[in-house]
Amino acid sequence: MDLEKHIHQINNHLNRRTFLQNGLFSLGGLALSTMTAAPNLSSLLRAEETELPHFSPKAKRIIYLFQSGAPSQMELFDYKPKLKSMFGQELPSSVRQGQRVTGMTADQRSFPLAMGDFSFDQYGQSGAWLSNLLPYHREIVDDICIVKSMYTEAINHDPAITFFQTGSQQAGRPSIGSWISYGLGSENANLPSFVVLLSRSKWNGGQPLYAKLWGNGFLPSEHQGVMFRSGHDPVLYLANPPGMDRQSRRRMLDYLADLNQSQYHQTQDDDIQSRIAQYEMAYRMQVAVPETLDISDEPDYVFDMYGEDARIPGTFAYNCLLARKLAENDVRFIQLYHQGWDMHGGLPRLIKELTKDTDQASSALVKDLKQRGLLDDTLIVWGGEFGRGCYSQGKLTPDNYGRDHHPRCFTIWMAGAGVKKGITYGATDDFSYNITKNPVHVHDLQATILHLMGIDHLRFTKKYQGRRFRLTDVHGEVVKDILT
């Protein structure tokens, strides 16, 4: 009897799905006839539900330069001369106010203030403060918006990076790139709308990165980020195996599509349509990916701009150059991760090496997009998952110290489509410990990014397990003061 009851429930479920499908095409057919043909029912429902973009976007694409491990804001952007004048003195209790620290420094009896032998000066018409560690940033300082008042809720790396990329400290939510791919789709049918590039500093190991950071969560699987590796095969298992030519691959995919469509008509499982879409994308990528990632025709002046590392696959500079090429080919969301910024010890030496990895290439990307007319509709975001504390972790010496995690304030920068140029937003206290002006929460940044893409973060939701989820959860406001 239980089996008969279960079969009866399945039949009822399929009947309801059939009714809704027929109703959609009969009642909405006239309106849908003016739209571009959609590949499956789920995409029609999604387009009808979200009506994206909600308004005219400023940005067509995003390049996110994520500095994994958390750069120290005090050595780079947030100039705090008191840290030098008070070197070795105790962090005032009135500043810390009993706020929690990580388990790595919780047992320290002393919290001595620390700052290395780094100098700051003001540059550009904006007069923004920059460290001598960032000589190439001086060339773009009037093109970027420096936000000194970011803060987050997470105090350890994995939940903090997950929070930045998915809007939640818990794994399982869709990444920001997946949200944008799901909402806006692709402008290039031959390339993924969401691409991920990884690089690692040769000076410092860095925190591990997991596929959940570019995962699709509960969104259809074709919206997950596609990682392009350095080397001969940028995408694993994309090339045809020996003995199979392109025509044979096409025939195989056609037969497979017929089988999947037959199964879909029986079960109405939207995951099957996602699987078909991924097979077809992989087929088109076999030609498009090698052509897009080929840098052999780039002139010497481009490599001079990005630095010699741009000739070496797998480096941050190489990936920045690829990011420009992907932007030229209308990839919607381009995510770069550079590992190595986690500096609990040896910071004065390590931060010099990390800025060598990233300073020139980051600046070159802004200049390159600008000279090609792409910066006007491309948004660039640069920053890590949290900041660093102003006191020394471990033993403090005149030329060596480390810094622990600090979620209460840190610096990022943005540039490009819809972002004000040459401004510094927000401020921190004399120790870069607490925010004193214009705090910006992680969800505020995410809301602002979506806004620049023409998306109202409050209206952009996906119903899952009985609840409507959004990237910014139940929080977040657009930071309108930094927008044009």
Topology of this structure?
Elements: H1 2-27, H2 29-32, H3 41-50, E1 61-68, H4 73-76, H5 82-85, H6 93-96, E2 120-123, E3 128-131, E4 144-151, H7 157-166, H8 176-184, E5 194-200, E6 226-228, H9 246-267, H10 270-292, H11 300-306, H12 316-328, E7 333-339, H13 347-371, E8 378-383, E9 387-388, E10 393-397, E11 400-402, E12 405-406, E13 410-416, E14 423-425, E15 427-428, E16 435-437, E17 440-441, H14 442-452, E18 462-464, E19 467-469
Parallel strand pairs: 1-7, 1-8, 4-14, 4-17, 5-6, 5-7
Antiparallel strand pairs: 2-3, 4-13, 8-13, 9-12, 10-11, 15-16, 18-19
Helix pairs in contact: 9-10, 12-13
What does this structure look like?
The protein has 484 residues and is of the alpha/beta class. The chain has 2 domains: 35 residues; 382 residues, Alkaline Phosphatase, subunit A. It contains 14 helices and 19 strands. The strands form 6 sheets. Strands 1, 4, 5, 6, 7, 8, 13, 14 and 17 form a 9-stranded mixed β-sheet that branches. Strands 2-3 form a two-stranded antiparallel ribbon. Strand 18 and strand 19 form a beta hairpin. Helix 12 packs parallel to helix 13. It is globular. It starts with a helix and ends in a 15-residue tail after the last strand. About 7% of the residues have low confidence.
Question: What can be said about this structure in brief?
Answer:
With 484 residues, this protein is α/β, with parallel strands linked by helices. The protein has helices spanning 2-27, 29-32, 41-50, 73-76, 82-85, 93-96, 157-166, 176-184, 246-267, 270-292, 300-306, 316-328, 347-371, 442-452; strands spanning 61-68, 120-123, 128-131, 144-151, 194-200, 226-228, 333-339, 378-383, 387-388, 393-397, 400-402, 405-406, 410-416, 423-425, 427-428, 435-437, 440-441, 462-464, 467-469.
